[in-house]
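4.2 Preliminary Data

To establish feasibility before requesting continued support, the project team ran the inverse folding procedure on a target of 536 residues. The structure was first converted into the token representation described in Section 3, and no sequence information of any kind was made available to the design step. The complete token record follows.
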């Protein structure tokens, strides 16, 4: 018995394109002798379809596409994830297609309603096992969250399943694969040694990136197959009775390599699936824009990326030199547009209003907004999307300018803390020379006034990032963070800035999620709130 794990990249709402991928996987698997082809969760629609699932017309279109697909499936059993309307209820489902028919359908039993998931909004839970027979072996089906807690897997086992097929749309965050292994091992134990085939979606969908990394565990909970992360792949796994034979185990990536590949895939799919011809970004000579540029080039190719240096009177010569060196090193289109003439014109227009007032954040932010306007003009002229370059640390404490450096279509480093940005730069330079050394070693600066550095107004990033992680990702209160060994002044300062700048983050473009909790779908804080933990 051969089973194919089809780790494919689906596009939300592209029923025709997704169906074509599924049928192609079935044909290729059949040619290699596979009897069963397992695909990811909601592979017909892509994941997550979000409020498309509130439309009856969408369900009817999915039903018609599934029935049409079934007519094309012969010689294999194709397991397809799809939304299902039955008895007036909506289900997250998986159906088995064989010899022109839909021979079985399973309804997901455990609906996640946390983090980036809100399936309770769209679906009702199933209650029954789905077990189908192929050549004398019985196969059960689970869908993603079903295997993260007890019940659904043992229900399949009680229904007679010898092997469990698990369809997944499990988004990436750092170290997520370890949690998946642990969950599957618990279910193997719960089901008295039933082997499990875990097939995960791959690809970018708005701020989520699905990393694939599908795998097989035998009845002892041993990893016997491991597919690569962040790329489409299909693996044929052979069963000897109910025992999956050992095969290739692709090694896990380092944290830096995994995050970097997640960013590349997120940018590639956001731009590709939305039909943008390329990307444009402001290249400042600093670390954030440098890493953003390497990601863009690796995702799109140098010929589809434009870098623009927009110097002011505060821009250091080394910033100019380093930005130009890097642009030439990567082979991207490079432009320089000085902003001082525009800045002077704005200051002249505001002279009466600003008379006798000191130079402050108003003038600093004006420079950022001029740059944002220039980049958006290039975007309008050429159709390229503007990639913003701010990192998670800056977004957390509001060290960014609305309608300035936050202006754009996609925020590549939105969920990447500053300390991790440096690690990504070192990682990328280890692949091939890309970022000049001085960009990495110099003190970070927005260069919006003379002799400015980030640490003039922020704690050191090592401290800021640790406090941010504790408060944002782990929901610790200020007192608990102080008890971890941080200075009370730093904690209250950072927490205050995080809370006060929610209004900015709500207006920021979407960006790739790589941490346990990013500023986006999975952190939903009120803008208007009188709860002030730093004052308690």
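Position-by-position output of the design step:
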């Amino acid at each position: 018995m051969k089973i194919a794990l089809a780790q494919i990249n689906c596009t939300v709402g592209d029923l025709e394109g997704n169906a074509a991928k599924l049928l192609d996987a079935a044909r290729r698997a059949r040619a290699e002798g596979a009897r069963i082809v397992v695909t990811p969760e909601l592979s017909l629609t892509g994941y997550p379809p979000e409020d498309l699932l509130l439309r009856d017309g969408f369900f009817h279109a999915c039903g018609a596409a599934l029935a049409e697909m079934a007519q094309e499936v012969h010689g294999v059993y194709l397991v397809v994830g799809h939304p299902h309307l039955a008895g007036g209820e909506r289900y997250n489902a998986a159906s088995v297609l064989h010899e022109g028919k839909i021979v079985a359908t399973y309804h997901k039993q455990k609906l996640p309603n946390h983090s980036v998931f809100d399936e309770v909004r769209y679906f009702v839970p199933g209650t029954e096992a789905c077990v189908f027979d192929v050549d004398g072996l019985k196969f059960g089906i689970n869908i993603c969250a079903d295997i993260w807690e007890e019940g659904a897997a043992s229900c399949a086992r009680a229904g007679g399943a010898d092997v469990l097929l698990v369809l997944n749309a499990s988004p990436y965050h750092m170290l997520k694969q370890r949690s998946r292994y642990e969950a599957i091992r618990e279910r193997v134990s719960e089901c008295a040694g039933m082997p499990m085939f875990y097939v995960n979606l791959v690809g970018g969908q708005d701020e989520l990136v699905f990393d694939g990394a599908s795998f097989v565990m035998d009845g002892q909970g041993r990893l016997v197959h491991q597919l690569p992360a962040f790329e489409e792949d299909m693996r044929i796994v052979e069963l000897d009775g109910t025992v999956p034979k050992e095969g290739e185990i692709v090694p896990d990536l380092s944290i830096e390599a995994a995050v970097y590949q997640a960013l590349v895939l997120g940018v590639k799919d956001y731009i590709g699936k939305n039909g943008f011809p390329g990307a444009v970004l402001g290249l400042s000579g600093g670390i954030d824009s440098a890493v953003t540029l390497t990601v863009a080039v690796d995702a799109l190719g140098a010929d589809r990326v434009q870098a623009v240096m927009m110097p002011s009177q505060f821009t250091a010569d080394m910033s100019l030199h380093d930005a130009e060196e890097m642009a030439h090193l990567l082979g991207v289109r490079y432009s320089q547009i000085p902003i001082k003439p525009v800045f002077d014109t704005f200051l002249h227009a505001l002279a009466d209003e600003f008379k006798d007032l000191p130079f402050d954040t108003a003038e600093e932010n004006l420079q950022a907004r001029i740059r944002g306007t220039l980049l958006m003009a290039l975007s309008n002229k050429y159709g390229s999307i503007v990639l913003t370059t701010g990192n998670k640390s800056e977004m957390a404490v509001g060290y960014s300018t609305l309608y300035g450096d936050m202006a754009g279509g996609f925020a590549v480093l939105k969920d990447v803390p500053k300390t991790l940005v440096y690690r990504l730069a070192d990682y990328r330079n280890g692949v091939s020379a890309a970022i000049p050394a001085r960009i990495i070693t110099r003190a970070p600066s927005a260069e919006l006034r003379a002799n400015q550095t980030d640490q003039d107004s922020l704690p050191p990033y090592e401290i800021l990032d640790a406090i941010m992680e504790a408060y944002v990702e782990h929901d610790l209160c200020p007192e608990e963070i102080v008890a971890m060994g941080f200075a009370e002044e730093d904690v209250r300062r950072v927490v205050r800035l995080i809370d006060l700048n929610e209004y900015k983050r709500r207006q920021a473009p979407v960006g790739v999620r790589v941490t346990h909790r990013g500023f986006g779908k999975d952190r939903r804080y009120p803008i208007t709130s009188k709860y002030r933990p730093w004052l308690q």
